[in-house]
Write a structure and sequence with these properties.
Blueprint (H helix, E strand, L loop, with lengths): L16 E4 L9 E4 L9 H9 L3 H4 L3 E6 L5 H14 L7 E6 L7 H14 L4 E2 L5 H16 L3 E8 L6 H7 L1 E7 L3 E8 L1 H19 L1
Parallel strand pairs: 3-4, 4-5
Antiparallel strand pairs: 1-2, 6-8, 7-8
Length: 211
């Protein structure tokens, strides 16, 4: 796969990187990593900087990653909020992710700061990207956001429409599957739009076979 440049420089790159959330979920979640925020941005970079953030307007969720070890992180929050408001993305749902908690003193200091952050920002995630259990915690939070509007449904797939089976597994979480002489029965969990699309596809396939 492609490599992502990591450097302690002012905008080593203005490119965004898009990858699937791993471990992959159903439905698949794509994550776009954009540039960091900075106040007093050099005038020549303003247009390029903001153009990379246009994706935020189309995002269904924003992860705002903040350096928890930086004493001035509150100023970071202000700058980010200001820019997001400027581009019209202030209404997009957001999760604050306080990273680098492991850079904050000893375990006692880390626990104290984590408690403070949780009290101040109840829905935030406090973590270290170096700890697998923390990465898993963030992953769970992201997936939970996308699952909150999902519904459970039952789908019947006649044997003559089994070509749609892969679509069911690709767009929904299959909770149970049984079958009889007429076809397969699925109990699924997924987004309403995905389930409606599958239902229409099954109906269309059945109508075509019946002609």
């Amino acid at each position: 796969g492609s490599e992502v440049l990591v450097a302690n420089k002012l905008f080593a790159t203005l490119d965004t990187t898009v990858r699937a959330l791993y471990p992959e979920s159903i439905p698949r979640i794509l994550v776009s990593d954009t540039v960091g925020f900075i106040k007093n941005l050099p005038h020549g970079l303003v247009a390029s900087f903001k153009s990379t953030l246009d994706e935020a307007l189309d995002a269904s969720l924003l992860l705002h990653v903040i350096d928890a070890s930086d004493p001035g992180f509150e100023r970071q929050l202000e700058v980010t909020n200001h820019v997001l408001t400027e581009i019209g993305a202030d209404e997009v749902p957001r999760i604050k992710v306080f990273n680098k908690i492991d850079f904050v003193g000893d375990s006692t200091a880390q626990a104290a700061l984590e408690q403070t952050l949780q009290n101040r920002y109840p829905d935030c995630v406090v973590m270290s990207a170096k700890r697998p259990e923390d990465v898993a915690k963030l992953h769970k939070k992201i997936v939970a956001f996308y699952q909150q509007d999902q519904i459970e449904a039952e789908l019947f797939l006649p044997w003559e429409a089994q070509q749609l089976r892969k679509d069911i597994y690709a767009t929904c979480q299959v909770l149970a599957e049984t079958s009889d002489h007429e076809g397969a029965y699925f109990k699924v969990r997924g987004e309403p739009s995905a389930i409606n699309k599958l239902t229409e596809s099954v109906k269309l396939s059945h109508d075509i076979k019946s002609v």
